[in-house]
Amino acid sequence: MAVISSHTHHLLALGFGILGNIVSFMVFLAPLPTFYRVYKKKNTEGFQSIPYVVALFSAMLWMYYALIKADGFLLLIINSVGCIIQSTYIIVYLIYAPKLAKIHTTKLLLLLNVVVYGLILLFTMLFSKGSKRVTIVGWICSGFAVCVFAAPLSIMKKVIRTKSVEFMPVSLSFFLTLCAIVWFLYGLLTMDLYVAAPNVLGFIFGVAQMILYYIYRHPRPDVVPELDLQPNGRQPQVKVTNQPVEPSESNV
Predict the structure, then answer these.
(1) Spans of all domains in the chain
(2) Contact 246, 221 (CB under 8 A)
(3) Which end of the chain lies in a sparser environment, N or C, as judged by fewer CB atoms within 10 Å?
(4) CA-CA distance, 59 to 106, in Å (whole number)?
(5) Which residues does UniProt call coiled coil (predicted)?
């Protein structure tokens, strides 16, 4: 069996790391059309800020992990970029969101990105050092990544219930799956369990989303009741007609 040389192994890890940066950058830019619409309409149209606050927290965690581990340069680059992009989205949201949404977003930011993140920094700095600190932060990052990857379960449930893929764009599912594959291979080649392990789950959920899209990609006619009013005072009869229902615009 052929054995990969250490030089080739290093080049493969570097290649997948760079590819992971490129794909992740494209995923970070996916909400741009939504925020451009918000900017043009000067209205957030009721969509939630939670995904962007969570994405910022995730990027901050991985930045910390990349800073304290050896050879974390590629992870540091993409998550630094991610912090900038997600912060920009949140700022735009805070500018155009209604008052209550602004208050809710600010509270969530303070709780997650200031208090929780600050406590993680404080405890890992005070009570651990060296490889032990890397292990603790790695497990925190990995555990949170699993929670993030599991988040689309509610969307998948909605797709099955409504038989509509309106709220689950296949392009985003594809790039998230590709992202999971690339970072899994990078984690495997660099022997980084904390990067590789959660991306297995990311791949599984990504494939599941694309399968659901394939099953429900064609909108099915909904059953719409039609009243047949009777002139002689009898109860109206209900006729069932199949009429396609126009999809409403997603508010993300």
Answers:
(1) 31-151
(2) no
(3) N
(4) 18
(5) none
